[in-house]
Amino acid sequence: MSGQSALMANLADVVKEAKDEEIPMPKSNDFFESKTFRLLTLMLYMGGVSGMGLTLAVYYLFIWDSRMPPLPVFKHTHPIG
Length: 81
Description:
Shape: elongated
Number of helices: 2
Structural class: mainly alpha
Helix content: 55-70%
Mean pLDDT: 83
Oligomer: single chain
Order of helices and strands: HH
């Protein structure tokens, strides 16, 4: 049993040492993960939403007809009241 406890103590020391180590991560040079790409997509999104809003505003100002059709006249009815 002393061999097993020595092994466990050795493993505990290895885990304690490894816990403090920082694992190096390779730096990604991928364009799609860069800040430039994020800003570019944000600008495109905001431009698209604003452009659609502007298009809708122009439609409602110059194209859409807001007049209501005349109310139908019913014959042989009694007025209310």
